[in-house]
Amino acid sequence: MQAHLRRIAALLVRLDADVVALQEIDQDSRWAGNFDHLEYLRQQAGYPFALHGVTTRRTGLFNLCYGNAFLSRHALEEGEAVAFGSRTVGEKGFLFVETVLGGRRIPLINLHLHYGSRTARLRQVGQVFRYLENRHNTRAPFWDVPPIVCGDFNTSGKASDAAAGLLADLEHFAVYALHPENGRTFPSPLPARALDFVLVPAGLEVTRCEVVRSWLSDHRPVLAEIHLG
Question: Domains of the chain, with CATH numbers?
Answer without folding.
Answer: 2-227 (3.60.10.10)
